[in-house]
Design a protein that fits this description.
Helix content: 25-40%
Number of helices: 4
Largest sheet: 5 strands, parallel
Radius of gyration: 12 Å
Distance between the termini: 29 Å
Mean pLDDT: 96
Order of helices and strands: EHEEHEHEH
Strand content: 15-25%
Oligomer: single chain
Structural class: alpha/beta
Length: 100
């Protein structure tokens, strides 16, 4: 596995250190809330892989979705593409919302 699954406190700590936050949910899912400072790159969009490939592979990314499953798949894909510092939020936005 080329990424780490982390909990909300660790996600927040890495946010404070300047990690880039990527929300891989669809636009309709945003009504469930979001993490401050996120960039949305929809996992189901046909251009997802192309959009991801444009990112700097050497910085730290915090990835989340609704539950943590889709973002885990995104992290796996990104790891295969050469990204080095990837973190998946366990429980996704549901976990985030429960820890506000």
């Amino acid at each position: 596995m080329k990424y780490n699954n982390i909990d909300v406190p660790e996600f927040k700590r890495l946010m404070e250190e300047g990690a880039k936050i990527i929300d891989v949910r669809s636009p309709d899912e945003l009504r469930e809330g979001s993490v401050p400072g996120y960039t949305q790159i929809n996992f189901f969009d046909p251009s997802f892989k192309l959009d991801i490939d444009r990112l700097d592979k050497d910085i730290t990314y915090l990835i989340y979705c609704r539950s943590g499953n889709r973002s885990g798949k995104a992290c796996s894909m990104m790891g295969e593409m050469g990204f080095k510092n990837l973190y998946n939020l366990n429980g996704g936005i549901g976990a985030w919302n429960s820890k506000k």
